[in-house]
Write a structure and sequence with these properties.
Bact_Acetyltransf, GNAT_dom, 5-stranded mixed beta sheet, alpha+beta, 4 helices, Aminopeptidase, GNAT family N-acetyltransferase, transferase, globular
């Protein structure tokens, strides 16, 4: 029997699993903030309030989750409909190259369609070639407007400047 990756939407009972994977992602990025406790409390809050979906993936049905991504939904006036923000896609190093990233992206697209989204977007580091290749396989592209690259810009609102 062939092992096939399995993906599902996390429930509140799986908040600890989601948070643990996101803490591992934070560590992978070389960061030490937010704290482990903040991730655990935040995931519980998001799931309790229905503010986002978390998708989990395992190498096969019945195995522990080894991948995660977050999906946030909002109405966009410029798109005259809902959009989905795909965030925090992470697969543990031991489970990479097993198709978990691909099943997470495919499930994210399916979930966005279920929610009648007209647009889905994400951001990644421009030097993350494996991630870019994965997203391009699913039809994502670097935005261009008038021949110019569209950039994702952000700033912290914690800093009063």
């Amino acid at each position: 029997m062939t092992r096939a990756p399995h993906v599902w939407r996390a429930t509140l009972l799986e908040a600890e699993t989601v948070a643990d994977l996101l803490v591992e992602f934070r560590d992978h990025l070389g960061r030490d903030w937010p704290s482990d406790n903040a991730f655990h409390a935040g995931v519980e809050r998001v799931l309790e309030r229905g503010e986002a979906d978390f998708l989990l993936a395992a190498p096969a049905q019945g195995e522990p989750a080894a991948g995660v991504c977050q999906l946030r939904f909002a109405f966009n006036l410029w798109r005259a409909g809902s959009e989905c923000q795909l965030e925090d896609l992470y697969v543990t190093p031991s489970a990479r190259r097993a198709g978990l990233g691909a099943v997470l992206v495919a499930a994210a697209l399916e979930r966005a369609r279920e929610r009648n989204c007209r647009w889905i977007e994400l951001d990644t580091h421009e030097d993350n070639a494996p991630a870019i290749a994965l997203y391009e396989r699913f039809g994502f592209h670097v935005g261009r407007s008038g021949g110019k690259r569209e950039l994702v810009l952000a700033r912290s609102l914690d800093d009063p400047r």
